[in-house]
Amino acid sequence: MESIIDQSKAIRTGEELPIEKINDWIKTQIPDLDGFTEVTQFSGGASNWTYRLKYNNYDLILRRPPAGTKATSAHDMKREYEIQKALKPFFPVPKMYCFCNDPAIIGCDFYIMERVEGIIPRSNLPKGLNLSIPQTRELCINMIDKLIELHKIDIQNTGLDKIGKGTGYAQRQIDGWSSRFEKSKTWNVPDCKKVINWLKNNVPKEEHTCLIHNDYRFDNLILATEEPSKIIGVLDWEMATIGNPLMDLGNTLAYWVEEADDFIAKSTRRQPTNAKGMLKRKEVLAYYCQKMNLEGLNFTFYEVYGLFRLVVILQQIYYRFHHKQTNNPAFKNFWILVHYLNWRCKRIIKNQ
User: Which are the contacts of 205, defined by CB distance < 8 A and separation ≥ 6?
Assistant: First the structure.
């Protein structure tokens, strides 16, 4: 059973922590901490860095922004910490312990939360976890249901209504992601002007808003070890906000790689959405619309938005690699994916 539980690994070169300073600081926040920590790192994320700090009586996670951060607003550790702390009574997120903004400790903001032990479905389900087709379908349905549950949370009760910026969410997103793309462009990627202009000209005039995760994928979920179709935790809230739930769904489907997709799409797969029993993108959309009582929805804007947003995220990560702010070899060919996703966006627009 231990083999299917998500495990941290050795810390990547250049991403080490000043562990003695961290130990001293955490003990001022959690006085009954016992024993010196074993420090390892989770390799799944491409954005904020995530470490496991193992003590005799606590199993903790440290989250910090990456070196060479390009988009400060996307790595606001205090905001990420406070969102999860407020959300904890209403939704399955880890317990938050403490936040640090003293640069003398590790040189940047960070926070400490509990480690929730379980299965994280990354590119494939772990070896040894053999789900039947009905079990895989149940996991997929539970994943969508959990997103729907999030979208139905009464944000007034959580106090998180204050994190939004009011009306005009969709327009702000298109303007913001377009600007971020311009600032992170490198010589070897397309200008994406056709897609950007189409999005700007097709912003929905009316929109419902709610609490959205903004990065909702299988590899941000924790599954129960004894009941792998059950979701016991949702991680990575760095981009959560008050926004349009259909744009949240568009973001999720941008990562949804199916068995029938082309070889480039398949090369990007980071979650087991191709497994037998998983719903197809169209089936996910139909299920969501049925549960949310949405009829006659034209999803083209949200589909293109989700893919373009992924273009920008990949380009921002590639920008760091291109300028030698990270040496993670996984980022080396992200510029090719920017070309590919730009092409997919243009094809969807053409065929609508």
Answer: none
